[in-house]
Fold each of these.
Amino acid sequence: MDKYKKLASNTIIFAIGTFSSKILSFLLMPFVTRMMGTGDYGAADLVQQTVNVLIPIVTLAVNSAALRFALDKAANKSDVFTVGVRTTLIGFVIFLFFAYPISFITINDFRLGDYILLIIAFVLVSSFRQLCQQFVRGSGYVKLFAVDGIIATATTLLFTILFLGPFKWGVTGYIVAIIASDACSIIFFTVTAKLYKYVEPRCIDKSIGSQMLKYCAPLVPTVILWWIINVSNRYMITYFIDSSANGLYTAASKIPNFVILFSQIFIDAWQLSAVDEYDSKDRASFFTKVFRVYSGGVFAVASALILFCQIITKILVAQSYYESWKYVPILIIATTYSCIVNFLASVYMAEKKSLMSLLTASSGAITNVVLGFLLVPKLGANGAAIATVCAFLMVFITRGTNTRRYIKISYKLPLMIFETVILVTQSILMLYLKEGILLYAVEAALFAVMILVNIKPIMELVNLIFAKFLKRGNNK
């Protein structure tokens, strides 16, 4: 299959599954924010983010290795999945010995010990769900991956409404709904992909195990560093202010996730194409063309979100959360660059250079922590957002420079700088101009400029894809 057609086909398939599951988080926000106060919502978010950073530590990020090695056509799939299962189980048993001391961690008015049993169950179930997801995707079962996204959407919706509505379980109900949905996904993958056939109870190829662990070991600190960039500010906000402020910041972070929604749909498909086409002669041209379309689309979506951020906030959250819109514009810029650096991660994935992911992410984590401690006490939650923007910019600079050692991607920096200036201008106007016709007229004009500068690459790819389809049709 032609590489552009394959990329387009996989993107559509992943869109079916990913869009439904990601859009659910936005659709549930009006319900969740009405059923939970800002303090409870902030606490639930900290539990979820704590689990997100624990999973790669407990499992050694073996789910990422399962994806990468399952993509290798010569790899023994049973060996790959068995290594994943064994590593996850051993890591979880070790984690149990540390759960008790972890329960004593307290941040201002938030205490992990109140939710330690939930955290243990959350880590176990979600670890296996992520392993199953990535192995199935790497093994080529992209349609099953998409169907699981739809099922996860339905089960999360059902459990969340049930546990927060009639049961009124609050923070516990919010977390249990996620755990129950993840458990349903594990059962689905096990039955449909027959994952039990890939578990080898006897000896496996030890070289596969050592290669996988060598690959994923640097990913553990890398994921922690990403967590520091994305989430540590929420702990700083809780520490310097309180959980209610973190609840507003968390609500604000949901809107920039629209950018991640469109980005992740493409990245899931792109990772497969990046590995498949990495050894081709025209890989630099292929990566450059795809990067230009991808980055242009991300900037365009970001510009639209800044334009409509106040309106979206009114629709998505309860009235008590409305002030959270003030954090949205800056967070959108941060999210935009997080999507850009995620694209560059595909180079390291194809090269199996996970150590370089670690080194480049460290620059961003250091930047985020230092600026976070300096800016949050002075500027509040927006100080945290600014720190995150600077962190992702630092990662882009270091990663963009380093990846050129492996593949010469043309980033068209003058254009990217211009696109960034548009987003910054939109953010400043949104934050400091009074809401009215003038504000929205100027914002709309800037959005129109963003669309104009990105029409050409998008139309080129659309024409290219259709040309390939027409060519294949004429050859039949």
Amino acid sequence: MKILVINCGSSSLKFQVIDMTDESVICKGTIERIGLPISGGEKNIIFKAHGEQLVFDKENLTHVDAFETVKELLTESELKVMDSLDEIDAVGHRVVHGGAKYNKSVLIDAEVEKDIEDLSALSPLHNPANLSGYRACVKALGADVPQIAVFDTAFHGTMPAKAYMFAVPYEYYEKYGVRRYGFHGTSHKFISKHCADYMGKNIEDLRIITCHLGNGSSIAAVDHGKCVDTSMGFTPLDGFMMGTRSGGVDPSVVTFLEQKEGISPKDMDNILNKKSGVFAISGGYSDDRDIVKAQNEGDERATLAHEMQAYQIAKFVGAYAAAMNGADAIVFTGGIGENGAWLRERVCSYLGYLGVEIDSEVNEKTFKGAEAELTVPGCRVRVFVLATDEELMIARDTKEIVENL
């Protein structure tokens, strides 16, 4: 079975074709700056197959144009991987928000399509783009090819009400669905299962804390295979500080600054999402590599930003150990989780009460997709660095659904 995985953003389209016989990646690509101008020789399309890559540009793309480009790359380019799109057996779509209704991946039909559209109120930047990708696929492939929605929020659908409810008037939950939803669920689902396999144990016997750390970051408490809490909330802004996002702040800070600075709710949303977090504290760095470099050069604000980030992550890990009455494993994943040796070691330095002791030499050597256990033998709670693969998780969910149609 060949599955096309589509991750459609507001101005980008990422794709992979995966052969589910052995879960090998046949090809992958990225199309960026959809609906945006291209400047100065910028290349917005990358396609990789057969160990080679094509890099070129196309201007004035819509999402439909972008998918037509995908079709050309797969079937007509010099690196083509098939003669016809008829070789695609199914398509798995990343959909950011499934609301409270969808706690698992589903076949997209008219009802699901409408629900994704209605949920755009909760994810205005992502769900409309996800729908554009789906509709472009239907136009190119026809209605007979199964299209599966894999929701970022779905894995967190097992949270109990005590974890997902906010202590605001209950009517806002009833009227508008104001509650914790959580995000990065596809990654948390993949990495918790991967961790169990890496340990040689059944996930239903484990309590795992998964730390997906990147420019956007979240942590989840996975209790015997089910998510019972997660750090992101109603939106991906909640939790701990990220590259440009503030994470949780006292709500009074928001209203105080709106009044003092004359800031509109829209502008405040932009400040909290795009001008806060590590970027704000460090004085302009949001990439972890830049933070490490500045910190090594003695930059006090970069150091403060990194220390704050590690401290906040450690607090969530502690909270989730309490939520599950203990933990068997902690996993670092994502761009920073897999490569940020300083941050991992600093987080673990707070976890001695859990019995965590890591091998600093192993930690320093683990980056660029390498996988390892960081803890020394005999630790009560084991710590791992493992590579996530959201596209493969989407493909696995898609395959399972299609085989049961």
Amino acid sequence: MHWVGNGFPVRSIFDYNNLGQELSPFLLLDYAAPYEFPPGKEARGVGGHPHRGFETVTVVYQGELEHRDSAGNGGKIGPGDVQWMTAASGIVHEEFHSKEFVQKGGPMQMVQLWINLPAKDKRAKAGYQTLPKAQIPNVMLPDNAGSVRVISGDFEGQNGAAKTFTPINLWDITLNAGKSVELPLTDGHNTAVLVLQGKVDANDGQQAGATELAVFSRDGDRITLTAKSDAKLLLMSGQPIHEPIVGYGPFVMNTRSEIQQAFEDFQEGRMGDL
């Protein structure tokens, strides 16, 4: 575990320097497991910092965050809500615990996923999608097995709330103990499942427990998950982007010269300010 700012104690499950190519289009996954914050008075979080070349997706399970960026976007997200920020050509943003959460304290639990953009879209206009819990389709599974929240992509005829540049399924899954689900996916796509709570058997009986990542073969068009105990999971599956990945800190581009240009643009204020 390490701290991002003073508000987010996270485990980096993977990043673009190790599994970034193998799990394309997914670049990085940080998981802030449940952490109890005492009531306070000072803002907790991370101040203004830049991004370019990808998207950040923040899923909140417990707690409440406030966002502000150089494109003029802002918002507050709480349990069940999702924030989908497109950095693309460049953006400066900050994320803090909401004022109300700072004052009362409580548990914070969240995931942040970085999703790569194809070279042709890396200089697209920056954007921001707030996806409230009420707008995210929730599909109940047969036999009281659990449910699937469709953040992006589609499941059982339900289209996800988020708009994406490339085909991406991002599903929030709840599985009840002893139940199984067969999930249809696209052959050739990269698929991984983060276990947030409980234990599951995946396909051939290999187990994954809390804070572990199950990575699946690209071959085949479905996976089976069986809950050994009540489980909460985040599934990510997407079309690989077969392009070079060159990342440094908050920037992910295709060449080193593009990274140097990103630093220059940020330092000279071309990504805006807060």
